[in-house]
Structure formats: C-alpha cells, structure tokens
Amino acid sequence: MALTRTAPDRARGTRARPPGAGRPGWRRRRDAIGLVFALPALALFAAFAIYPMLRVFQLSLYDYNLTSPPVWVGLDNFRFLFGDDRFLASLGASLFYVVITYGPAVLLALVLALGLNNRMRGSAFVRLLYFAPVATSWVAVSVIWRLVLQPEGLLNQTLNTDIPWLTSSTWAKWAIAIAAIWKEVGFFLIIFLAGLQNVPKDLLEAASLDGAGALRRLRYVTLPLLKPITVVVLVMAVIRGFQSFSPQVVLTGGSFGTEVINLFVYKTAFASARMGRASAVAVLMFVLLLMVTFVQLRALRRSA
Amino acid sequence: MSTRARARAVLIPAVAVLAVTAACGSDDGGSTGDGGQIELTYWTHTHPPMNELNEQLIAEYEEANPNVDITYEMIPNNDFGTKMLTSLSNGSGPDIINMDDSALRGEYIPKELLAPIDPAAFGADSVEELEALYVDGTLDGAKGEDGTLYGVPSEFNATAFAINTQHFADAGLDPANPPQTWDDVAEYGQQLVAAGHEGFNFVYLHSGWYTQQLQTLLNETGGSILNEDGDGSALTEPESVEALQIWYDLIREDQVGNADTASREATSPFEDFASGRRSMTMIYPWAVEQIAIDNPETFENLAVVPLPQVDPANPSGRWYGYYFAVNKASEQQEEAWRFIEYMTSQSERWLEDVSFVQPLQGWEESPAAAEIPFLEVWSQAYQQGRFDEVGPHWSEVQDAIKAAIERSIFDGQPPAESLEEAAESVEQSVTS
Amino acid sequence: MSTGAMVVSRKRRPVGKVVVFTLLLAGGLVFASVFVYAALSAVKPADEVLASPMRWLPSQWLWSNFTLPFEQAPFARYYLNSTVVGVSVTLLNVVTCTLAGYSFSKFAYRGRNVLFFVVLATLMVPLEVIYVPLYALVFDLGWVNSFAGLIIPSATSAFGIFLMRQSIDGLPDELLEAARIDGAGELRILRHVVAPMMVSPMAALALFIFMTNWDSHLWPLLVGNDADHQTLPVGLAAMQANNLGSGGLPMMMAAALLALLPTLLLFLVLQRKFVEGITMTAGIK
C-alpha cells in the first residue's frame, strides 16, 4: 500500500521543531523575528482577552454584585455550584446541544465540502445555499424558525406531525438542534473547503493513475491531508457548542430544559447580579474546555 | 481596586501603540463640559412614541435652559438591565434613570444606587408635600423599605380585561355583561371556543410576563410568592397554589385557550388578541393603542372591562409603574431633578401623546383624560391595585416561577407539585 | 464518489457527477426553503406573517416593507457603523492572525507552544463574563461610545490564529528554505511566498471575522451609547423590543434580510478563493 506512505510524506504537516541546544546564531535570530510577527496579536490578547480572563478568575473567589465592592468568599461559589440543580441541568443541556448539533453538522459539512470542491458554476450557487444560513443573524433566524416550528408550521406540515416543538420539555432541545444544524453547517463547510485547497491535485491524479478508486483516494489521500483543518473544525465545534447562547435565547429563552451554560452564566451575571458566581461557572467551563481541547489535540496528533 | 490598577500599569504600555490608532474615537469626556455648560445623560427603554415625546421635551428644556445639554439614550428593553449594571459597575452610568418599580425596589434602591428625591426641585418644602400631589400609594413603587422616596412616575399602569365584542356576539354572549369571575371566564371561554375562537389565554413571553400574570392572580387569591419575613417562599400555601390552579384549569381542564399555539413574539405581546384570534385577554393601558395600530378592526370591537375577580366583593388588581430617578453617583443631582420636574410638569402631554398616566391627584378630570376610551374602567383599576412583590435576586425567582408555570401549563404537572419545586429554588435564591 | 478527486475524474465519470450535484442541489434547496419563506414573509402584509396554517405566498407584495426600517429607525446609520467596524475588524484580523499563525507554525522560539495554547485558551471563557472587566478597561481607556472601543478589542482572534497556524502547517518547509537561500527576508517570504498560498484560509478567515462581528450584539450594546455608535444587531434588537405590533414583524424580516446582504456579498466575492487554490497548490512541486 504505497499510498498510505505517500500522502503524509507529501503533506509534510510541518511545524518548526521546538528549539534544541546549540542552534546556530542565524537560526536564533530568525526565530526572534518570528516571535515579533506574533507580537501584535499577543499584545492585543494580553490587554483584551488575557487580562479580563484573569480578572474573571479572580472574581470567582468573590461575592460581587457589580455595584458594591467585591467580598472575598473563597471557594463558596464553587461549592454552591456543585450542589445547584440549575447549574448541573445547564451543563447537561450544553452537552446534549454540543453532541446533537455539532456531530451531524460537522459530518454533513465534510460531505458537502467534498462534493462542492470544484469550480463548476452550479457549485458556486449550491455553496451559497448552504452558506446563507450561517450569514444570517440569530435574531432573524429566530423569527423565521419560530414560524417553521410552530404547531401548524412548515416542519409539522412536512412531517405530517403535530409536535409542539418549542413548548415542550421533550421536543424543545431537538428543535433547537435542528435549527442550529441548519445554521452551523455553512461555517464548517467553508473551513473544510479552505482546507481542501491544500490537497494537491497532482497527488490525486497520481493516485487515480495507480488505480485507486474514489473511496480509496478519500481514505488515503484527501482525509490525511485534511487533518490539520479537521483539528480546527473539531476543536471549534466543541468550543462553539459549549459557548452557545443565542439560539437558546431567541428560540426558547432557556425554557423547557434548554438553558445552556452560557445562558445560565449570562443570567447569573447580569439578571441576578451575581458576577462572582458567574465567574466561577466561567472558570469551571474553562477547565472543562481546556481538558477537552487538550485531549482532542493530543488524540488527533497521535492518530497521524 | 489595586489589583486592577497594577494589571493596568503592566498592560497599558502594550496597548499604547494601539491607542494611537484609536485616538480618533474617544469623545466621551467628563460630565461637566467647558464654560459652565451642564451635561446630563438620560436613559430610557425603547418605545417609539415615548422616545419621541422625550426628545421633544428635552429640546424644549434645552431651549429654556441654554446652559444644559441632555444626552438622551434609548436602550432596548431586554438589554436595559445588563447595560445599566455594567455601566454602574465602574461608577459611570447615566445621571437620570427611567426604570420600572420592580427593578427600583428590587435592585437599585436596596443597593443604594439612587439619590433620594429632592423636593425643592419640585417647589415643595418637604417630601410629604410632594407626595400629596399624587394619588395615594402610587409613589410606593419608588420607595425604599424605610419609606424614603427615590423617584416620581413617568408612567403608571393598572390591569384591566379586554373582550372582543364581535366574538361575544358570535358566541351568543352579551358584551354588556362581561365575565366577573374566573369561573365566568371559563364558561364564556368554552362558548367562545365553540364559536370558533380562542376564548382566553395568558401571554407567554419572558419570565417577567409569566410572573406578573401569576402575581395578578395571587393578589386575588390572597397568595404570595414570599413569606411575610421575605426569607422564604409562600408558593406552596393553599392560596398561592389556587392562583396557578386557576390558570391550569382554564387552559388544561376547560381548554379555553391553547398555550402551544400562543404567539410568543415580544414585538407584539397582544398579537393573538389584536389579530382577532383570541376573544379575551388581560390588558394594560398602553396596549390599547397598540391594538388600534395593529388591527383597526379588532380595535373597533374592543371593550375594556374590569379584571375578573376571585372574589368580586373584594376586587384586587396589579399596579406597575416607570419612575424617573437620579443616579447617586451623578455629580449634578440638583440639575437632574430640575429636569425631571419639567418632565412631570407636562403630565397632560404624556397622557395625550402616548397614553401614559402620571397619577397626579385629579388626573382623570383633565381634558386629556376625557379622551381616553373606557376611562371609568381604568380609573376604577387605578383605585384598587398593588405593586408586585420583590426580593433579593428577583430575576431568579421569576425564572423559577416561569419554569413552574411551564411545567404545569405545557407539560401538565399538577400546580401543587410544580410550585413545590419552585418554592425550593425561590428559597435558595432569596437566602444565598 | 463525492471526494476531492472529483475534479480529476470530471471527464471520465460525468453521470456520477451529475447525480452528486443533483443531490447536493436538492439538499441546498431544502436548506434555502426556510430562507425563501423568510424572504416571502418580509413582503407580506402584517397579519399574514403569523397566519396559521402558514402559507407561502403573500396575498399582496408589499415591497415597501424594505424601506420601513430606514423610515422608522436610523437604519442607514446603523448600517454605516456596522460596515466601518466590520471592515476595520476584518482587515486587522487578517493581518494579525496571519502574522501570528505564521509565527506559531514556522518558527521555533522558546515558549511558542505555551503562548499558542494560552491564545487558544482565551476562547474557553464565556464572553458574557469577560465583558465586565473588559468594559472597565475600555472605559478607563476612554473608548466607551467610540469606534476604538468597538474595533480594537476585536482586532485579533484566537480562532483566526488557530486557523492560520493549522493552514500554514501544511506548507512545505523546503519552499521557505528555497526563498531564504535566494536571500529573501522573513517579511518578504511571508508576503511573497506564504500569503499567496494562504489565500483560501485568509478568505475564510475574513469571511468568518466579518460575519461574527456583523452579528455581534452584546459588546456593541455595552460600548455604543448613541445611534452614532450603535451597530445593526443593537438596532435590530431595539426594533424587536419596540412593541411594534404585528406590523413590526415583516419589517423585522425585511431589516434582517437587508442586514444579511453585506455578508452574502462578501461570500460571493470571496467564495471563488475557496476553490481557486486548487491549481495553485497543485502546481508546487
């Protein structure tokens, strides 16, 4: 199976190796220039992301109602959360949403990207059809989807059912997932399409001449070469999923078992004015996502 | 906060480069401008007719007081609390705040964010003298626990009931004999359903709406959300369960309305009534005008009648209001109150232009009031109301109530059970 | 046969290709049906929008719904503000993310991986709470109610850096080495070797950043106080909360569709870049 070796060789999924001892001076100078390239972004991050993030970490140890000085409470916020049904329910709602929405959305996006990766005129139009939802704001999407999901709306009429999609604890989470898949597919489609441009055409031609069928080429050439981008897609899918907020706000307001973590955080911080507790949720979420991402990055590196 | 200051000391150099790029942007100076010019910031929620009147009144005030500049900012309803809290969190925020009584009594007064009213600005020698100008009890919506007054109303609402007279005729009912009790509503409702209409339903928007409607029923049954000490829930008391039971029976037992098909568009809370689908609804004064704009046909058949009662011999109702208040952190409180005095001195125009009642003594005898349809029903409603309960972390309490109502009305859980669950979370919210 | 190899087999397997295309088109039309419904709702008379059972076609076509947003709200101003912010943020991101992605991918300085992971970690805290300390910082910088406050905090993105790093990882090192041997400086290599080959991911990045920014609601709400600094989502939310009555719904739909146009336009302009890369990358030996 010559192909299995050829593809990764050609991919050269290369990232410069970490510095070893005794690098020549020119090499160190060049790497210093490389660091300078990262500086604008890093400066912005330091000020507008990392500093606020550290503040949030700090506030998680305080009782802070936003308008009076914070009061130190140690780990009380965390202790409360571990026994809070509402928080635990929101964790469950988020997990459900991530799996049920982003599993199908990513798979569908991959299939679509493979099918639409050509320069046919028609394909451009079809790409637009799939892309349009992700370009639409959730405010607009909600107005549309509430019409689609109402008891006598488009979905029930199409399926010939009589389901109260948005007003029952059984169905609301599925209804949101359906709308969210519709909206999110385009996002991953574009990333996959961009990634596919790194798959050299001549390699596929060579494989084809070697007698590899379409599925073989997919399995041994395209997918391995698509891996760096698949990493982005999977990591972003989990992060986007857990950071979800708008679909729940606009479709159910968090009712019927759809209060996801970020909605809980938002309400805790701004409606209940419990910024300390909201920060504690943020810290827990941070730890959770960090672990998941770390595992993802590791697992995907190993599978190379 | 010293940590923040230290963090900033480290970070600001990093940002300095960027600041150059951004130099164009910063135009938010101090609140006192040059040459003795007084700058006031004033925030309200969005409601186009009201916003327009505000702009007019501000223009007039600025013309009469050339040394005053008022920056008027309108913030979408749903975002008002978020925006206000964030800006108050670092001592900024507007000088003049226009807010509803629940937020004032629940959040802003207990947290000492507001300045007590300045009677002198209203030409009164004392707060009592100022209070005497208003209908009894209507200023309670802006009072602290100790009775200190923090604002005066821009808008004051009572609750009534609306019926579609055409639907009544369709069902062979007499519009001149509207339902007086909730039992009547159930009975009439079933006849209206038989005539092809949705008889009656509540409005299912956000937790505030759920809670205010339950509160209206609680006021009638004698139930309440919190116990007398305010440190626990009273939702499992029989009177409180009865309130949700009324709701439950109407929708799930007597089926006078279908909660699943009810419109949930915040753009149009009374959509179902306005569109002519629903025959009866609870209603507030400002909604009448909205229905008129929305669907003139329904407006023609609209009759405002007294709110149905559990005990017609002892009628009750629900009040809520929006008040002008002044940010305690404002450096120009005196000027702020002077401006508010001007705003309230135009109470006739509020009534005439935007149908807002500012409940000064004798408001219902003013020429503007005479133009209000169904004035006698409204003025009756203004006699017998109560402000909503509030307590610490009230939004969590409202969320728990909304969840309980949804479990009962949409998922079919018996009211006693769903309120039991709500009681637990209410208790947790007000005590932690 | 839906693989990236389709281009190759174009001449040999036209039937399969037609089948695949038809399937994709059908799926796309299903996706778009929701959208078409929205567009039709935008030109309906108010009382037909929520009519039940739902109907597709309006009884009369009210194109005037599309001018209402401009009459009833400073919609043009919101549009302008969103455009200024969106374009600035997008350009800044393409520059900062490409630079940082290149740096994280092709250079080997100490702490590089840690820095990258820290950048990635910033994605993992809910923005809703981040905004509280961020607002305090932006206020102290004097950027409340200014374009600086709307633009600068969004001038780079962890997602963008991640995307660019992963994409640049795919570039063969030999290519860079060859340029270096020819005496090119690092910036020159970035501009003339790396960037031209990263057109696809950069286009994707630009699109996403623009889109995210265009749809961002909470931060612009906090930072912008007056109509001169409010963006479309804030304006739309205000319109939605205005108790406009059902007459407001078609106008909302129309406003939402109008708000969508720039993103679609950008997509149409950039989407060729997503597939044009094919031949370019393939040409590299």
From TrEMBL, chain A:
Spans traversing the lipid bilayer: 32-54, 95-116, 128-148, 174-196, 217-239, 245-266, 278-297
Localization in the cell: Cell membrane
GO process annotations (BP): transmembrane transport
A GO CC term attached to the entry: plasma membrane
Coiled-coil segments: none
Stored Pfam families: BPD_transp_1
Transport in keyword set: yes
Topology within the bilayer: Multi-pass membrane protein
Keywords: Cell membrane, Membrane, Transmembrane, Transmembrane helix, Transport
Sequence similarity: Belongs to the binding-protein-dependent transport system permease family.
Protein name: Sugar ABC transporter permease
Organism: Jiangella anatolica
Upper classification of the organism: Bacteria, Bacillati, Actinomycetota, Actinomycetes, Jiangellales
From TrEMBL, chain B:
Keywords, sorted A to Z: Signal
Ranges where the record places region Disordered: 413-432
Signal peptide range: 1-22
Pfam hit, one: SBP_bac_1
Cross-referenced InterPro entries: Bact_solute-bd_prot1, SBP
The UniProt record lists the keyword Signal: yes
Gene3D superfamilies tied to this protein: Periplasmic binding protein-like II
Protein name: ABC transporter substrate-binding protein
